Amino acid sequence: MTTSTRGAAKTPAVLVLEDGRIFRGRAYGAVGETFGEAVFSTGMTGYQETLTDPSYHRQVVVMTAPHVGNTGVNDEDPESGRIWVSGYVVRDPARVSSNWRAQRSLDEELERQGVVGISGIDTRALTRHLRERGAMRVGIFSGDAWTGIRDEALLAKVQEQPQMKGANLSAEVATKETYVVPAIGTKKFTVAAVDLGIKGMTPHRMAERGIEVHVLPATATAEDIYAVNPDGVFFSNGPGDPATADGPVAVMRAVLERKTPLFGICFGNQILGRALGFGTYKLKYGHRGINQPVQDRTTGKVEVTAHNHGFAVDAPLDKISDTPFGRAEVSHVCLNDDVVEGLQLLDQPAFSVQYHPEAAAGPHDAAYLFDRFVSLMEAERA
From CA 44, how far away is CA 40, in angstroms rounded? Predict the structure, then answer.
């Protein structure tokens, strides 16, 4: 629930974690109350892309960078049609926007879209708390949602909220109707993209490579996919627990059975893991930001990459695995904690990565993965 008011920056606010820790600050954006899973993002830039990433649905994002909002907001950089984060936490919001592309301030945009936030708290202490104890449920309260209400009552409201583990959220953020992103220049291939929470830059990156992208709802069937006569199939990023995604897993298995070139990112990587028979698990505090080091084990190259995931695939790092669709191996690994960051099949054209190669808002180290997808389709056509 939100109640948008002017002068929010002067309104007291409180952040309440499910384990009882409380941070007091000032309202930022809309005034009211909001709930979600508290997670932290280590990116110093790209906050507009973060806010509009559907993978952040039902999460309250804590920015580790202390100064946020200095470049304002424009209408060109969003990754979807709305802000998806449940709440926003910053230490020192910019007082003015200073960028020639800015059309309004960040706090004005948060207020316009009814996103409750808090500023002026020690985000370093909050981040350390989440690293030590793990991502957890949180509530932000300001205005009438806080006035006269005891901390114990606010904590009880937080503890009533659903957990992220077991949450099935893809259909809540995905398109309801199929749409087409045309190829830029000469059309070379057709790709069916299953939208589990896709970012706008992803089909654009494919379109730049001559791919006509048919973006399908999360509920798409194998029949829906092959009705567009695709040269390749793509499974996007998205929010929620991959253990609940039985429908997309079944559809991906149907694609693997036909040996159509396949590429998945983020949630799509977890779907591929499940389709191959691997399990998934929830990370303690996840990977979120645009500065995560990943090694491509097929080349030995180390990439700085953009991440947003709280779940991971449980696959062996030290051996090739036998699956119902042939041999599979872990192709990418996070150098911070050895989390599986990519999978590939060795006997048919299918691979995935856990991070975001579309590089919105950067870095660009992983853009070659779209070229790898094109190469698979070229080889299959040949």
Answer: 12
